[in-house]
Model the fold of this input.
Amino acid sequence: MKTSFFCAMFLFITFLNSGSATLQVGFYRSTCPSVESVVRKAVNKAVARNPGIGAGLIRMHFHDCFVRGCDASILLDSTPGNPSEKEHPANNPSLRGFEVIDEAKAELESLCPQKVSCADILAFAARDSAYKLGSINYAVPAGRRDGLVSLEDEPSQNLPPFFFNAQQLEANFARKGLSLDEMVTLSGAHSIGVSHCSSFSSRLYTFNATHTQDPSMDIKLASELKAKCPNNGGASDPTVPLDLVTPNRLDNKYYSNLKNHRGLLTSDQTLFNSPSTANIVKSNANNGGAWANKFAAAMVKMGSIDVLTGSQGEIRRNCRVVN
Done:
């Protein structure tokens, strides 16, 4: 990312207003100055061992912000009689990276007890993952507080499923204050990570009454996927990289894949197949630098959704349980 853009972003988001809540770059400058280096160290160590953890942390931040806002509700464990967001099929068993947040939080609690929120740690970790896997860097406004509630059924009401079309995705993101362009831009996070076969197998075997296989999918890709994902009625559910070209690099090859009809999920390929989003896909495919800049800005905006600040919520001592 160009230095000029980073500086402009830094100045623009030093004070980021979200309704009545204000997040601030450098929020921990006096109370816990080492916070970002501690988080980055934990992320870098984990991603060096397994790049998929970086994809998991970016996805975890998204799943957190779209349910109750960016309040670390995704990190709370279930309690007797109260299953948490973690148990929802959108998160369990696929969500990864919880141990990275735990490691960073434990070190920060020893350095700066009850100063740094789990919600901010997750926002920093998502940024650090984007930098480690895609050299996309941006300043993260902080000051989020941690929520007190996490409910298993709420992801269903807020997270877009893999079978949504472009119009449904647009409406889903609009409810969170994100534009059509930001929706397509953030979808580029599917340049990394994996998907279970069950999330796209209907495109291979049971598409509709006319076509057993989705005609919008590249024939060669469909053949490759059938070899990895046998039609066995769900007896096994392997994973496949979302981007088969650069699976561990956060880049704009995702959009080139869509242009070549090699998107894995319905919610991916619809972005090129739909007239409302096709030109955005083409633009992002043609200019990786511009997409990276937009991705950084959209991540900052997403990170401000319905945040708790000031005396709202709490600062958890342990990210898995309320105080």
